[in-house]
Each structure stands twice: as structure tokens, then as C-alpha cells.
Amino acid sequence: HRKNGHNLPPGPRGLPIIGNLHILGTFPHRTLEKLSQKYGPIMYLRLGCVPTIVVSSPQAAELFLKTHDTIFANRPKVQYSQYVAYGAKAVGFTAYGTYWRNVRKLCTLELLSTSKIDSFVGMRMEEVELLVKSIGEAAVNRQVVDLSGKMVNVIEDITYRMIFGRNKDERFDLKGVIQDAMHLAGVFNLSDYIPLLRGFDLQGLTRRMKATSKAFDKILETIISEREQDASNNHQRKYQDFVETMLSLMKNSSKTHDELSFTIDRTNIKAIVFDMIAATLDTSSSAIEWTLSELIRHPRVMKKLQQELESVVGVHKMVEETDLPKLEYLDVVIKEGLRLHPVGPLLIPHESMEDIVINGYHIPKKSRVLVNIWTIGRDPRAWSETANEFIPERFIGSNIDFRGHDLRFMPFGVGRRGCPGMYLGLINVRLVLAQLVHCFDWELPNGMLVNELDMTEKFGLTMPRAKPLLAIPTCRLHT
Ligand code: HEM
């Protein structure tokens, strides 16, 4: 590839206007893997008008996410973030710069810190107990459980209580609105790639995004106004949820906050609430359903994990958060689950802020960068010929952590744009998964063999199972 005398990375030839858009297909991460085998770990595509660089090896990822992290720390401006995510006024979709840095700092210090997340321990346990109780009832009646649906529900309930202080409100359908918003986040929007089409709204997405955003805003306005009222009545709650925390920051932000050099307003609060919900829901539930699917497919690993749980927790009680640090095998099982089924197979797109030359290739300013961690996690050169198999033991005795210090494994991304919610995400995943494995044995319905379980993915911003995981539970605990 050459453009204006520059040496672009290799890649497939594109068509006029659409470029390579037509080749992505239903499973872009798999298509891109095949292409990278032909064109190499730094590959150039043109998606509509957007120059796109696909990164597919740990060495290449190092150059983009570590060595030149600052150049690639921007996010592309997409319609979704403009219309649904409050004009990108939170963290995930926000352009790199002072504003992003301040909001991210607010989230890490005030909302996602270890001490804050630990303050919700009691609430999380209540929700997990309800989950185990409802599955226990299904076990007694030998009923099939839709585990994917249950995972989404328990994570939703925990998240809404953490953010709003409650998860049920008869007056509005918060869950429905959020599900619409999440769905829109995953839809491929032509207008983001071919700006000429923007005015026509051929897919009807602009209209739907505006409608969803309006519905969400109305609900949030009601909740926030009520909470302001509560605060002025000195209403006391068991823990301080996110909205309350941010309202008190807003109230006090006239006194310049030491750590935060900007003042938070109502729109910031709404945008951050949206970001936190969107970032928590599908990520945690997808990590749990995939890992559990692999455990069901691999009875040896399931048994070994159950044995660890029996010896650390005992057979008379549920798993508590204080048990989690002692569960070493659980840790490597989750790593292996996320290696094979990363929640964000291409991370969130990064965007370059300047022209730069990497490995002799010209990477133009405003290129979109997709890091294919799905491919990196399955590369036999990095993981041996067993790369496609589920073998948690490969992580035992290695110093590969969740943080992406070793770029063969970076389920939470790495660098400036790496996930700030890792601690929370991992607590949700560990706690719920441990419970399901400790409290129940699982068998597939209708005598289905474990190797017949459908493992098809549904590609979007996150990548859950295409079909729900259905299984029949049997109780294990002696209570
Ligand atoms: C198992 C759970 C989770 C996984 C696997 C995960 C993974 C990721 C990944 C891969 C990215 C993109 C990194 C990049 O583009 O380089 C990301 C970004 C992000 N995550 Fe998570 N995440 C999880 C849970 C959470 C939770 C619970 C929160 C917070 C409530 C959260 C908040 C965010 C935010 C705000 C960003 C954007 C960061 C930025 O652009 O500066 N995530 N996450």
C-alpha cells in the first residue's frame, strides 16, 4: 500500500467508497485474524473513509499501547457517543485530553477505588443469595435454568443498587432502556464510516439513538431530583451509592476539590452514570457465561475447581468475598476463560492523534486502531499448539496477570485507556462464578453431551454467547 508517497502497512485492496467494509462479515475478529495471517500483525484496511490499523501480535501491541501509548490514546468520534453517551462527556468514548483525564480521575478515585467497591460487599452478597435461592428452587424441580439470562439479571441488580441505591422502580423501565442503548452500541453504524450518508439515516439508527437517549435522560432526571431531595432531608442509607457520591461532589465543588481540578455538573453525573452502567453490565455477565460454558465442557476442570472451593469454603456455606483471594485455581480458570473469550475482542477502538512511522509503516493521523486480543489470545506462537484448548493450568506459576504487563494477555486493555473498572469487574465475575460452581452441579438439558454445547459468539461492542447457556442444576451444599 502506498498513499501520497507514504508506505502504509500491507492489507487487502478496498473498493471505492466502502473500502473494505464489505469483508468484515458476522465475526469481524475471525475475519481479521485470517487477513492478518496473510498481511501480518500490523495491517491496513480502509473502512469507508476511515483508515484502520489492525494490530494482531503482542510485539505490535507493545508498540501501539506501550511505546507510543500517548499518540494512540484518543477515541474516534462516533454517533453513538454523541447521541447516547451525552456527547462523550464521561470516560469510555471521550477524546483524549484534560477533560477525559479529570473525569477518569474522578471515577477511579471516588467511584471505582478498592475501598468504595468494598463498601458494597453486603449488598452484593444479598443479591447473590437471591440468585442462589432461585437456582436452588429450579434444582428441586429439576428445571432448566437460563444461565445467561440469570447472569445478566444478577449483574444488573448489583449494578443498579451500586449506582442508584435500588434496583426496582415500578415507574419506569430502566432495564429496557439500557438494553436498547447497549444494543445500539453494538450495531454497525454506516454513518460512522461514510459521513456522506449521515444525513439520510439509512439504518434508522440516529432516530433510535436520540429516542433512547431521551428516555434514559428522563429517568435519570427523576432519580437525580429525588436524590437531591433525599440529601436535603438528610435521608440516610446503608452505603453511599454512586449518584449520592457524585451529588455531594457537585454540591461541594464550589470549594475547589484538592484532587479534581474541574467542577462536576448534572450532565457529567448523567454521562458517568451511563458509562458505568454500560461498562459493567455486558462485560461481567459475558465473562461469567463463557467461563461457565467452558467449565461445563471440561468436567475435569469443573471438578478440580469444586474441590478447591470445598477445601477453602467448606460444604456448608456459600462463598464470601473474603474467600476470593484464597481461591487460586478460580483465578487461573477466569484468566483462561477471558483468554479464549475476551469480553472486548478488539478492545474499544483507539485513534491516533498524529502521523507516526511504526516499523517503517506510515500510520496516518486519525487512524482507527483495533487491537485483536481475541487473535493474540489464541496465537500458537504465544500459547503453544494447545492455544485453542481450555487448560487453566497454563497460567499456574506464570507471572501473567490481568493488567496486561505481558501483552499476550490483556483482557482489560493496557496503558492510558486500559479499563479503570477491573477491580469491580473481577469481584463480580469471581463472586458469581464461584457461587454457581460451589453451590451446584450442572448438566446440559435433553441428554446433550458436553462437546455438543453450541459455542457461537455474538459480535458487538462486547461478545456474549449467541445462544443462552441452558443447564439443569443439582444442589451441592449440605445446609
Ligand atoms: C470483566 C469485566 C470487564 C472487562 C473484561 C473489561 C474490559 C475493558 C476493555 C478491554 C476496555 C478497553 C481498553 C482499551 O480500549 O484499550 C475497557 C475500558 C473501560 N472499562 Fe472495562 N471491563 C470490565 C468491567 C468494567 C467495569 C465494571 C467498569 C466500571 C464500572 C469498567 C469501566 C471501563 C471504562 C470507563 C473504560 C474506558 C476507559 C477509557 O477509555 O479511558 N469496565 N474495559
Explain what you see.
- With 479 residues, the protein is of the alpha+beta class.
- It has helices spanning 28-39, 58-67, 79-83, 98-111, 114-118, 121-140, 147-164, 174-186, 205-232, 242-252, 266-297, 299-313, 328-340, 373-377, 380-383, 422-439, and strands at 2-3, 6-7, 42-47, 50-55, 145-146, 350-351, 356-358, 361-363, 368-371, 440-443, 470-475.
- A hairpin with a 2-residue loop joins β1 and β2.
- α11 crosses α13 (328-340).
- It contains 16 helices and eleven strands.
- The strands form four sheets. The protein has a four-stranded mixed sheet. The protein has a three-stranded antiparallel sheet with strand order 5-11-10. A two-stranded antiparallel sheet has the order 1-2.
- The structure holds protoporphyrin IX containing FE.
- Protoporphyrin IX containing FE is lined by residues 91-92, 104, 112, 275-276, 279-280, 283-284, 287, 343-344, 347-348, 411-413, 417-421, 424-425, 429.
- Protoporphyrin IX containing FE (HEM) binds at residues 91-92, 104, 112, 275-276, 279-280, 283-284, 287, 343-344, 347-348, 411-413, 417-421, 424-425, 429.
Task: Detail the topology: elements first, then pairings.
Layout (H helix, E strand, L loop, with lengths): L1 E2 L2 E2 L20 H12 L2 E6 L2 E6 L2 H10 L11 H5 L14 H14 L2 H5 L2 H20 L4 E2 H18 L9 H13 L18 H28 L9 H11 L13 H32 L1 H15 L14 H13 L9 E2 L4 E3 L2 E3 L4 E4 L1 H5 L2 H4 L38 H18 E4 L26 E6 L4
Parallel strand pairs: 4-9
Antiparallel strand pairs: 1-2, 3-4, 5-11, 6-9, 7-8, 10-11
Helix pairs in contact: 6-7, 7-11, 8-9, 11-13, 11-16, 12-13
The chain binds protoporphyrin IX containing FE.
